[in-house]
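Reviewer comment 2.1 asked that we show a complete input and output for one of the modelled complexes. We chose the geranylgeranyl diphosphate case, as it is the one discussed in the main text.
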Amino acid sequence: MKIKEYLLVKKQLVEDALHRFMLESDGTFDDHIEAMRYSLFAGGKRVRPILCLAAAEAITDNPRLLNDLILVSCAIECIHTYSLIHDDLPAMDNDELRRGRPTNHIVHGEAEAILAGDGLLTFAFELLSNPKSDLPQLNRLQIINLIAQAAGPKGMVGGQSLDIAGENNDISFEQLQRIHKSKTGALIRCSVQAGAIGAGATDEEFTCLSEYGTSIGLAFQIVDDLLDATSTTELLGKTAGVDQQLGKATYPSFFGVEKTRDLALNAVDNAKQALIPLGNKAKQLTDLADYIYLRTC
Ligand code: GRG
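Response of the prediction step:
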């Protein structure tokens, strides 16, 4: 299947599953549930869940395992969506546009937006620990642990803290790399790793996929820096040029746009190299790496 079609098919699979799993208003907690649904169903690209499913497909074609991983991939999307809601808050990036619509706090108010993020984060772990899953218990525990680490103090949340501390400050390239690796890279890498573990990857396969996840996480963030510097608010569905406005160090601020493009391509090449031992089974992951470089939003 060509990558464009693959992305469409998998995105639909994830959307359908999110609609199946996500809470609906039923007369109790309605404001909270509507605030969570507002951002979850605002049309993200669903890159992380798709990476999780594609990594699993590079290891197994067992339909039962692949089906159980849909739940895991939805949990990861809930965590990602929570991070976007909180990132947009007045106390953080103070942004008014996300996924092509007004941000959560603009529509639901700041308190409800904070709670929507909290709700999505916690709901993710409810999904991950769903007793109906057929994934082997040990694999599930490993997945939950990896996701908690990637989203937590030494992953995304810690990275966000470093990012905020770095605003309007001169930070070194090493510090920028640490921010990117933890704030964005960790959740992307663990999406790939979760798919690998759920599919029963061997240690060697897990190592290849982890290397792929690290490089693809870096490529994703470098491209994000590039798009923020060179694209438009209309195309991105979120405010462009925010990094410069907030005085944030980025790849283009260190290297300029052209060299940054080369560095993104280099990260994509490293990601593809890591897949070589997996052979043809990793075709979709290879194509996903190219998509991440070529994406326009
Ligand atoms: C608030 C704990 C906390 C963390 C926030 C994710 C994040 C950390 C901040 C978002 C800021 C940002 C622009 C990061 C760059 C990479 C990134 C996560 C972009 C948005 O992800 P996409 O492009 O978004 O996958 P969609 O909307 O398609 O899901």
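The chain has a mean pLDDT of 97. We note this here for comparison with the apo prediction described in Section 3.2.
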